[in-house]
Amino acid sequence: MSNLNKDILFLLFKELQYDSKSLFSCLMVNRLWCETVIPILWRNPWRYNIKYKNKNNLFNIIASYLPDDIKEFLTKQETKLPTVSHQSLLFDYLSFCRSININTINTIISIGSSLAYNQFLLQQEFYNLFIKKCSVLKYLDMISNENQIFYFPEAGFHFESLCELKCDTSINSSYFYGLARICQQIQKIIIVNNINTENNNFGIAKLIEVQKNLKYFEWHDDHEFYGPGLNPYKEILLALEKKADIINHLEIFFLYTDRSLQKVLPEFRKLKTLIINDFSYFNEEQLKKCVYRDLETFRIEHYDLKENSIIIQNSGGHLKKILVDYCDSYAYDYYENFNEYSLILIRKIYENCPSIEYLSLIFSPSKQHFIEFEKLLKVCQNLKSLLLIIYNLDETETDEKILENGKQVLNILIKSAPSNLKEIRFFDHIKFSLEDLEEFFGNWKGRSLSILTSDSLYEGDDYLKLINKYKNNGIIKSFRHECSTNVGDMDFKI
Asked: How far apart are CA 311 and CA 86, in angstroms?
């Protein structure tokens, strides 16, 4: 493999662009691999899980590009700079870069000096370097930014090509007006709403309004209080409504009810991804207007079973992911129709989602629910990953009954699980006896299975001995205990 053509290597490594561990390993193979990997790593060097404050390498590389007179001036200001000149670098690293992350750069700058004035000087020089050296800029993360970076010489030309933007609402509207004047080809916008004071977000709304190719939009509230009468969403929703015919990914986490969403959401008829935290303030007629025939991923924060069923019924049969973020069991105690609506949801899934691959499912341990669950497994033959939450509203349920329900689940999986199913997640509402688990492993043949559970029960010696036995036989690929958050996150890899 080390003799592969450089173009082929580039395509292979590009598939690993989010996997820094693998890419860093590839650097060490030979010179050709190193030369191929470096441009990929440096395209967006901020995306990797690195503690930049403890790493001097990135700071040293960027600082080495500074002109000698600037270095001399900064050194006189008692700023610590590397002595290596940029001519001694193996690669022209900054020429590969297509991204600026304001927060990470500010963290790196603190390596050079702890003084605010020196950090400001370094900040200006670093930004100037990126503007000059980066031929085009595709990604900008300006969370917590206070620097009008687009006013640097030549910045306008480089920012015209911006494709992705991440920002927060603490930034002054004038910044967004400046970006709106230059950047009109942004495809992906992520906004963190982290301000508690009145802010109508006219600048962000204007930036959204001028985009010609906006496909992906996220909004996340990151605080817990608004004063009476404040509405931070209205201008944003009105601007998004004008882009409803081109947006295909919509992710919204609102902490407060906004009635404008009831009017705007049905307009996004070309959505492929809908992630939303609450449908509870939609009535049935409003939900029926939300028809998304191209929908492939559907995810909500709270499990509004009835509302979910309506959206799924009105989808076009292309759903591949139905996901729900984990919710503590108390949330269902006040759901009088939980048994009825959870049954309806299972039916709507197997009736309308023949292509489903990733599924989060919650239901009661009744005979009818188990029957419908088995039907779902038989119909949805593309299912690859399954998250199960079995919740009984009966608080008097005994341990024996819980184990009996677990046995029922395992028996259904043995009889009806599709051949593509390679990953199962369980919350601790479901428990398995040692004997039932061994019978299940013994009947699960020909497929290597990964299991994730939030129950520490399976870390006992007897369970570990059993699990290791079937790992050695190749039946079990992985069996791990994780926190509930990780178990419920279908993007968390087992």
From this structure: 56
